[in-house]
Amino acid sequence: MADRPPDLSSKNPDWWRQAVIYQVYPRSFADADGDGLGDLRGLTQRLSHLATLGVDALWLSPFYPSELADGGYDVIDPRGVDERLGTLDDFDALVAEAHRLGLKVVVDIVPNHTSHLHRWFQEALRAGPGSAARERYVFRPGRGTRGELPPTDWQSVFGGSAWHRVADGEWYLHLFAPEQPDLNWDDEEVRADFRATLRFWSDRGVDGFRVDVAHGLAKDLTEPLRDLGALGATGEEALRHLPPGSHPYWDRDEVHEIYRDWRKIFDTYHPPRMAVAEAWVPGDRRARYARPDELGQAFNFEYLQAGWDAAELRAIISGELATARSAGASATWVLSNHDVVRHASRLMLPPGTDPEAWLLTHGTAPAVDPAAGLRRARAATLLMLALPGSAYLYQGEELGLPEVADLPTQVLQDPIWEQTGHTRKGRDGCRVPLPWTTTGPSYGFGPGAGWLPQPASFAAYAVEAQSGTEGSTLELYRTALRLRRKLLDGETLTWTPDAPDGVLDFTRTEAWRSVTNLGTEPVPLPAGEVLLSSTPLPGDGVLPPDTTVWLA
């Protein structure tokens, strides 16, 4: 099969089904103007890195006007660009350059909430109780003799009550930070405005959307609002105990009406705009978001959360393939993103370790061996890239970056740190700016220091240090993505019968077999031509632990 670029043209509306999509967290990617924040011009200047890497698309995390109360997910204007990151002209130039390089562009959209600085919310504060402006959000009187208690016991995902009281005594709902008031999707003005947002970005050439908190838009706001009590006031626990679709604000059946409406918009474009749901729900429920008449694809977080265990991973892989097949979608795979500990560190934590507790020790208890973590991360990556479906990469994983677990608490930006009373360190450790060069005040990220400090160890991980270096993690990714493009054929796999314990062994096609040793001892290396190995093989006919090999 000849090496060929992916068909990303209008002739292939299903380009996303087995695409490799690279997530860019723009504030940490490249800083062109020297203010310490990554920006759109910096990203545009570095797009050749993505093209050389061999990905099919980039997913751009929020770049909208924001006060950064939640890393950009507190959106002031969903149809604008934060002036610190650039202008709409800069965005258009980014899309044009991406398309010139053969890259699709997917943008993050945040429909569950806005910033408290959004013009609508400021209008709601001025308008007062009972106003139409407040109907766009979820305002309620408090409980207690003087309304001094929150309307329900619901808790924010970030910690503390999910309700905040305003000066006139009413409370508003915020499932995340207080600076992120939840929208009321029962309000037709909210729905119409978001349709306008989808068309705005689609008209500017955006090829798809990643939908933040896709399972949270629809809410049961009938009175009296329900407490969750023993079911778990944070809400996530209650999903396991309530009948499907009946939770007051997570994964309600009505949410699918919204996405069927969006699909009508997506399908007016050629090719149709793709979408992927961030929906933290079980697989059988997740399939609903991925149906062809809705978003089309949904993130599989069971895979991201799995330990380094062959039996667990095989069950998750088989389940996700079945889930995607039932929805008429393709599977999704992800190992790292902007919300979790990077997999070069996470996969080395002993089973049962709480990553949050580990971060509070600055990564010292237990200590993680960076070399061992990188070896396992490389094996995990080759395994993921061999699976049918779309692979989502997170910026910096192609460099083998570990979590920066020892960030001083005084530099932390994530609202989780303050909102939980310093009991959860948050997500800043995976958002530290990327190293491009081996020297400089921010290792090439920008002309000055970045918004989060980089450890001295980042110099060895820099693109400059790895590019063209045989055996480097960057070159492993480049080779793997080039081979994957040549070998792709179909969306199924066949498990090899009688594989040794601790080994994941499957065939994609007659030309492609993937074998991963997740055990602690070497196993016999199957016969076949070695196309690629996550680490050098010893040459004695065995596959070492924490190693993946692709065979012809």
Automatic annotation (TrEMBL):
Entry's InterPro entries? GH, GH13_cat_dom, O16G_dom_2
Q: Which UniProt keywords apply?
A: Hydrolase
Q: Which stretches make up the Glycosyl hydrolase family 13 catalytic domain?
A: 23-431
**One MF term from GO for this chain?**
hydrolase activity
Hydrolase as UniProt keyword = yes
* UniProt family annotation: Belongs to the glycosyl hydrolase 13 family.
PANTHER family for the chain: ALPHA-AMYLASE FAMILY MEMBER, NEUTRAL AND BASIC AMINO ACID TRANSPORT PROTEIN RBAT
What is this protein's name? Answer: Glycoside hydrolase family 13 protein
> What lineage, starting at the top, does this entry show?
Bacteria, Bacillati, Actinomycetota, Actinomycetes, Kitasatosporales
